[in-house]
Amino acid sequence: KERLLDLRQPPVVVQALQDAGYKAELKTNKAGEPYVLSGANGSSFTIEFYGCTGVKDCNSYQFSSWYKAEPLFTPELANAWNVSKRFLKVSV
To answer: 37-53 pLDDT, tens per residue?
Structure first.
C-alpha cells in the first residue's frame, strides 16, 4: 500500500521502519535533539535529525553507521567508495 510520509517527523520515520520490519527506537541526544536507533543486515545505524522544532518539524536528516576498520575497511576503500557514490560517504 503506497502512502505519503511526512519524514520531517521523527515518530513517522520510526513507524515506517517498524512497518517495514526493522527495529527502530526514537531517542534524544544530550542536547535534546531526536535520533532513531535502528539496524539492518546485522549492522546498527542511526538517523540524526537537524533543524527541528523540539523533536518535530525537522528540515534534514543523516544516516550514520559504524564498522571495524582494517583489514575490511581501509582508507583506499573509503576513497574509492566516496568517488563513486554521490549521497553516501565513508570515512575510516
So the answer is: 999 988 899 999 999 99
| CA 8 – CA 47 distance, rounded (Å) | 12
* pLDDT of the residue at 54: 84
In the chain the first and final C-alpha atoms are separated, in Å, by 39
Q: Is the four-CA dihedral 86, 18, 13, 34 of positive or negative sign? A: negative
User: Beta-strand (E) ranges in the chain?
Assistant: 24-28, 34-40, 43-50, 60-65
Is 48 within 8 Å of 55 (Cβ atoms)?
no
* pLDDT mean over 11-38: 95
Domains of the chain by residue range: 10-66
Residue 38: closest CA among 15, 72, 7, 6: 15
Residue 79 is classified by DSSP as H
Give the three cell numbers for residue 33: 535533539
Question: Which residue intervals of 1-92 are DSSP H helices?
Answer: 10-19, 75-84
